[in-house]
User: Which sequence fits this backbone?
């Protein structure tokens, strides 16, 4: 019995010591990071880490940073979010309300939305290959990923804001398993069912809308 208790004690202590072993590496400007403020991190299909910072886009290969800024063609130094479209192809959101189409090894393309767009909060692709852009000041945009640049240049996209029943500020967009779209806005949570055009407040049962 004593041997059994001793054996269990050794096993538990061993498991506990392994479970508490974490490795943290801290990277700063001294290591090549362009800015201490990192707004988004994305691991690309090739394994690189891409970081959206307040001084541009940075690619980390595990040992060094490769940085891109306004001088390299970005719409703005302050990158707020990253969306990978394909291998080494990204759509970037910026603090100034503009976008950058970034393809490694090619010229960066600047994309401007409406003039009253203050900030790009988030970018996502839904199950039907539409890109959703959530913004501060201009609500949300929906654009087909195919021929993306041509669609932007010809204003071939849908725009939703307070006039359409959504909101002026949309901070995040998600799609659920039923292909319904969910929007986190300055007015609360709104939902657009797949087969409907209207945006409706999502109100959990038993909660007053004024206190939600």
Assistant:
């Amino acid at each position: 019995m004593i041997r059994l208790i001793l054996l269990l004690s050794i096993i538990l202590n061993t498991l506990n010591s392994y479970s508490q072993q974490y490795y943290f590496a801290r990277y700063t400007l001294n290591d090549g990071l362009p800015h201490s403020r990192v707004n988004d991190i994305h691991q690309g299909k090739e394994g690189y880490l891409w970081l959206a910072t307040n001084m541009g886009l940075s690619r980390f290969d595990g040992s060094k940073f490769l940085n891109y800024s306004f001088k390299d063609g970005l719409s703005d130094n302050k990158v707020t979010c990253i969306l990978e479209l394909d291998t080494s192809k990204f759509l970037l959101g910026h603090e100034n309300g503009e976008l950058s189409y970034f393809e490694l090894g090619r010229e960066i393309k600047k994309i401007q939305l409406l003039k009253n767009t203050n900030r790009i909060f988030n970018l996502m692709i839904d199950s039907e290959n539409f890109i959703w852009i959530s913004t501060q000041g201009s609500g949300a945009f929906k654009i087909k990923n195919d021929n993306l640049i041509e669609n932007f240049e010809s204003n071939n996209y849908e725009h939703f804001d307070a006039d359409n029943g959504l909101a002026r500020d949309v901070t995040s967009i998600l799609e659920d398993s039923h292909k319904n779209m969910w929007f986190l806005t300055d007015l609360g949570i709104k939902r657009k069912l797949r087969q409907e055009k209207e945006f409706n407040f999502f109100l959990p049962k038993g909660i007053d809308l004024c206190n939600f």
Notes: DSSP finds two helices and 16 strands in the chain. The chain has a mean pLDDT of 88. The longest strand covers residues 79-86.
